[in-house]
Amino acid sequence: MNNLAQPYPISPEAKAFYQENNYIKLKQVLSPEEVAHFSEVISAEVQRKNTQEKLIEERDTYSKAFLQIFNLWTESEEVKKFVMSKRLAQIASDLMGCEQVRIYHDQALFKEAGGGITPWHADQYYWPIDTNNTITAWIPLQATPLEMGPLEFSAKSQQIVFGRDLQIGDDSEVQIKQNLRVNNFEHVIEAFDLGEVSFHSGWVFHRAGANQTDQMRKVMTIIYMDAKAKLMNPKNDNQIHDWNTWCPGAKIGEVIDTELNPIAG
Description:
It is built from 7 helices and 10 strands. The protein has helices spanning 12-21, 32-49, 61-65, 77-83, 86-96, 170-182, 237-246; strands at residues 23-26, 67-70, 101-111, 118-121, 134-140, 151-154, 187-189, 197-201, 206-208, 217-226. InterPro entries: Phytyl_CoA_dOase-like (IPR008775).
């Protein structure tokens, strides 16, 4: 079980696809043994940290979407091995074309049986980062068929400015969906094989469907940024919150080099 310590070859064609579409799905990034092991480890941490007490039908759209636990790498040495692994960091840096990447934060996204949609959104609305060289690894901890709610992408939609100022929720789902349809962007929705991982940029629009199965949809995500990324002056309250939470002590105009943002790999 040493895939995570080994390089994963990214072809010139794969790099070009990512640069054009701002997302890519890669097969066999993790071995079945690695998926099983880290599914068990991360699930235990999510169960330990979960504070959600409301029934699904009592929650708003965002809260119905998933159980959300952050920065597990800071609390578990085994999760840290996963989040800081050479393989995932190397893929992220190769796709973005930068020398090294830092961790912005990790995020377990567990969509319960019967869990609702994840509305259309662009992640970087929340991030006070001065570069578009940001990328999220979306790592299913099981094979993820369509009825379980895999991640969906709007290919090439990073070039769209409309919707970048919308917080994730009912409004973003309706308004972004309508705009993407009007502009005829390709909507990519596919199942994920066991060990398959996707990577998407901070500005590409994406969503996920409801979990229509009786099983938990378990996903671990890792957000990386170019190791040279600097903190920008926050543009909204969410970015102020992210500054204080995920990169405390970072200074505007300087490289985001804090204890919570180490170089990965």
